[in-house]
Amino acid sequence: MKEEIILAKGLTKIYHRGSEEIHALKEVSFAVAKGEFVAIVGPSGSGKTTLLNLLGCLDTPSQGSLRLDGTEVSGLKEKDLVKLRRKNIGFVFQQFYLLPTLTVRENIELPLLFNKRNSYQSKIDEVIELVGLSARAGHLPSQLSGGEMQRVAIGRALVNEPKIILADEPTGNLDSATSLKIFDLFQNLNSQGLTLIIVTHNVEIAKLAHRVIHLRDGEIAQEASSVGLSRKIRR
Amino acid sequence: MNFVTLAIKNLLRRRGRTILTVLGVAIAIAVLFSLLSFNSGYEKQLSGELDSLGIHILAVPKGCPYEAASLIIHGGVIPKYLSNSDVEEAKKIAGIEIATPMLLHQFYKDEKPHIVYGINVDDMLRLKSWWKVEGRYFSQVEDNVMVVGRSLADKEKLDVGDVVPFGPDKIPFTIVGILERTGTQDDEFHFLPLQVAQRVFDKPDQVTTIAIRVSDISRISEISSQLEEIPDIQVVTMTQVMGTIMNLVGSARTLLMSVIAVAIIISAVGIMNTLLMSVNERTREFGMMKAIGASGTDIGKLILIETLFITIIGGIIGLLLSTLGSTLIEGFVKGIIPYSPAGKLMAPEPGLIGLCLLFSVIIGFVCGIYPAVKSSRLTPMEAIRSNLE
Questions:
Q1: Element (H or E) spanning A104, and its range?
Q2: Over chain A, what is the mean pLDDT?
Q3: Structural domain tally of chain B?
Q4: What is the ipTM of this complex?
Q5: Residue A224: φ, ψ to 5°
Q6: Which domain holds residue B150?
Q7: A140 in Cβ contact with A103 (< 8 Å)
Q8: Domain termination site, one of B200, B231, B262
Q9: Are B102 and B194 contacting, i.e. CB atoms less than 8 angstroms apart?
Q10: What residues in B contact A106, CB-CB < 8 Å?
Q11: Per residue in B99-153, pLDDT tens?
Q12: Which domains does chain A show, CATH number per domain?
């Protein structure tokens, strides 16, 4: 088996709302190998985004352990979580969250600013080309289509050269043709060795992943390999 | 790209709000700068005005308060008089270099007040050695002649040699000289030989004040005591005049300071409110930033840079506003303080400009620190919580 980049054991997340306890995740355990493409599916409220946020070090588990590229995440301080995020994780959101006054190039450059890697222009050019936006580099988000905006968000996730890309409903705001193009891009990135974990409602798109984790009520209901399913994008 | 360009681009996102906040700061700094430069200019100008009198002591009629001396300096008229014999008595005191009587009279022409000084010209030239005249001075024995200040000559379109009807009986007076501009209240006055003024305004043997210069200023208090032994005379030294005026101005200054304090507090609350609103609106954006690698310090730094931009730009605009509007502001302040020297009262100094800019930076820090800390402490999850299932 390939080397594990993510190892989750008994991951539990409890939120408190007044006196009420909400068990968003209940003892979830799984592993993700380097270079794997995993889709997390499930109905609303099943804990998909909570799991993704724990994997992205945006939140810490209430119980259980999570190892990310060999580092135990539970109990790390925010300062160390920031370092871990910068080094390992690229995030893609459903709503893109592009800064409206920054151009495509500047939006992609943003993580480098926080990572204190300002003189990294060739990397930005490379990423812009990779996401197919060379002709749009000087445009503002308001001048782009939804698909192009998501490409910018993907470029932004890639510029720090992360080991894992976590995408939360990356095609949730896109039409089906554009969604497939975005997945084409994801598959391309995955074929270059990048580990991909995607939360999606879209079953057709989930079928394109190596493995699908079904969540229900905060637990893994089913874990299935997509082998046998067509991994060719049907346009 | 760096944090500064990112901050500027963020501020440009909500231009209207940013401009209004900058204006709020600008107004507060303009008011602060105006008052501080007025304060520094006022004392300087007042002490310059008192020096320009060239005298150390004013002898005024008994019963006059110190304020009367202030009025006299500024050309005001008081309805009490000393006599020529008081002048002679005063002159006898040892240590007095010059004791020159003056009669002040005020009349209205076209509803504008005109101040007339009846003087002994030789004594005045010794007191005011800097006086220069276009034309000539009059001699004490001449009749129906006068010298006028430059501003008055300009206003009334008077030239040397002009003959104008003067006094209650409209006697023709010849203007023999026009004083070169002194930058003091002298520019506004009519000067007549003392005896002529006494005759024209029907004040025979009466003088308003005796201006005294002593030969040794360390003896001012000793000479003052001797002068006060003359039954009709009350003595006011220039130090007392200065003190009295500064006291009078003090309460007006306190009022102005309170106005400034209120302006600054309102401005600061406005800035903080704007920043907090902006921070709340951008909570998800900060969550995204944290997700892509920003630390709490990075977010806090961004907010603080944005705040400092607002306050520093506001500070610079405030300084410009204050400088451009100084005439207007000076007119307003002069209107509410009880005594103001002639000449320009606002004296903006480089140190003061630096102080006001520093103050705008401090406002920036004070107002920005809470929103910065608040946003930096948000966990990424709290920030993008609305995405939570």
A1: helix A104-114
A2: 83
A3: 2
A4: 0.82
A5: -130, 145
A6: 63-231
A7: yes
A8: B231
A9: yes
A10: 1, 9
A11: 899 998 888 887 888 889 999 989 888 888 888 999 999 988 888 899 999 999 9
A12: 36-62+78-225 (3.40.50.300)
Percentage helix, strand, coil, to 5, in chain A? 35, 30, 35
- C-alpha–C-alpha distance, residues B29 and B35, integer Å: 10
Q: Do A118 and B285 touch (CB under 8 A)?
A: no
What single-letter amino acid sits at A194?
L
In terms of domains, do B203 and B346 share one? Answer: no
Which of B325, B347, B321 lies closest to B27, judged by CA? B321
Interface residue ranges in chain A relative to chain B, Cβ cutoff 8 Å: 24, 44-50, 53, 56, 58-59, 78-79, 82, 85-86, 89-91, 93-95, 97, 99-102, 106, 109-111, 113-115, 118, 156-157, 160, 168
Cβ neighbours, 10 Å, residue B201: 19
Q: DSSP character for B165? A: E
Is B237 a member of any domain? no
In this structure, the answer to whether residues B44 and B67 fall within a common structural domain is no
Residues of A in contact with B6 (CB under 8 A): 102, 110, 113
C-alpha to C-alpha distance for B64 and A93, rounded to whole angstroms: 84
pLDDT digits (tens, 9 = 90+) for A118-135: 667 888 888 888 888 888
- The single-letter DSSP state of residue A208 is T
For B308: left if phi > 0, alpha if psi spans -120 to 50, otherwise beta; the answer is alpha
Radius of gyration of chain A (CA): 18
My answer on whether B222 and B95 are in the same domain is yes
Same domain, B211 and B339: no
User: Residue A43 contacts by C-beta under 8 Å, 6 or more apart in sequence?
Assistant: A216
For residue B371, give the H/E element and its range. helix B350-377
Counting beta carbons within 10 angstroms of the beta carbon of residue B296, is it exposed (0 to 12), middle (13 to 18) or buried (19 or more)?
A: buried
* A31 min Cα distance to partner chain B (Å): 22
Question: d(Cα B298, Cα B291) in Å, to the nearest integer?
Answer: 12
Chain B residues close to A163, C-beta within 8 Å: none
Of A78, A79, A111, the CB nearest to B293: A111
Token couple for A187: 């598959």
B255 and B143, same domain (yes or no): no
Per the CB < 8 Å rule, is B387 touching A113?
A: no
Q: Which residues of B touch A78 (CB under 8 A)?
A: 295-296, 379
Nearest chain A alpha carbon to B284: A97
Same domain, B213 and B73: yes
- CA dist., res. A47 & res. A134, Å (int): 37
Give chain A positions within 8 Å (CB) of B298: 114
Would residue B54 count as lying in a domain? no
- Specify whether B98 is located in the same domain as B198: yes
Please check whether residue B58 lies inside any domain of the structure. no
Token pair belonging to A34: 């380097």
How confident is the model over B324-334, as pLDDT tens digits?
887 787 777 67
Residue recorded with tokens 């009749």 = B143
- What is the spatial distance between Cα B144 and Cα B196, in angstroms, rounded to a whole number? 7
Q: Based on the domain organization, do B319 and B204 belong to the same domain? A: no
Taking the whole predicted model, whether its pTM rises above 0.95 is answered as no
Identity of the residue in B284, B293, B381 whose CB atom sits nearest the CB atom of A53: B381
* Residue B240 belongs to a domain: no
